[in-house]
Amino acid sequence: MKGLINLIEEKSLGTYKENVSLKTLTTYKTGGTAKLLVFPNSVDSLKEILKYIKENNIKFKVFGNGSNILASSREYDGVIIKLTNLRNFTQKGENIEVEAGYNFALLANTLSKEGYSGLEFACGIPATVGGAVYMNAGAYLSDVSKVLEKVEFLDENLELKTLENKDLSFSYRHSIFMNKDWVILKAYFKLKKDNKDEIIALINDRKRRRIESQPLEYPSAGSVFRNPEGNYAGKLIEDSNLKGFVHGGGQISDKHANFIINKNNATAEDIKYLMDLAQSTVEKNYGIKLRVEQELFNWEK
Ligand SMILES: Cc1cc2nc3c(=O)[nH]c(=O)nc-3n(C[C@H](O)[C@H](O)[C@H](O)COP(=O)(O)OP(=O)(O)OC[C@H]3O[C@@H](n4cnc5c(N)ncnc54)[C@H](O)[C@@H]3O)c2cc1C
Does pTM top 0.85 for this prediction? Predict the structure, then answer.
């Protein structure tokens, strides 16, 4: 790591922190320590940092807001890269160009309140633009793929590439990026000017419903499991009498059974225990294997 730190300092490629707790980088607020956290200050700096990382076989992971990640308590002997400094935003009417580090909910709220329709679904999703594109974040029967035109990214050889929506293999909570070693840099969205008052009424109503139905007062990473065809993961867990079940500092939320919350200094292993319990109990009771929507980071294989 010393070599990378020297490079960052000598060439002023960004800022960094050593031995950072993953609790501060994930919305679950769990996890061990990462050796190095880097904030590149530009796309060129990111390229130089990644070039060094790859040439020296250092492990790395790009983090957005950490709102879909359950990081284990183990030490991460690698580099976490956050694109917080890549957050340029340009708007030409209905056409939006926005860098990966931009706050996705802020983008959605700002544009919705200005009467641009298309990102209303995202007003309560605590993601970065990069993280939202990566997993095709969505809600209320909409998702990123419905409004995204194209994405700029660095491929595995650190070449700048652009792919159109149709080439990004979008499906329910899935994109091509999940199977590649690519870094998303910028997204292009196409919205539609519409009735501002109606959009504002809709997002306010959804916000109220989220507050009523989701345990937003506790750390979590949103829905734990995908909804299986024709069913709801939350209902299956609730019908299995697991709503409110506590293990260590974690709990299967008593407000929404598809959320696991960090109620009282939970470890990642407490949360994982509850995930496994919900999965095995639902499978035993209903023969349905729930699929985890969240990403397990730095767990033993
Ligand atoms: C309270 C709450 C409510 C939520 N509600 C919803 C919801 O309604 N709908 C929904 O879909 N999700 C929801 N989520 C989950 C989460 O917000 C989304 O999955 C989101 O897309 C994750 O974005 P992120 O920036 O936090 O990514 P992270 O969690 O940091 O990362 C997720 C993955 O994306 C990759 N990644 C991030 N940025 C980049 C990049 N620039 N280039 C390449 N890869 C990248 C990471 O490496 C990782 O593999 C919710 C979470 C919470 C806590």
Answer: yes
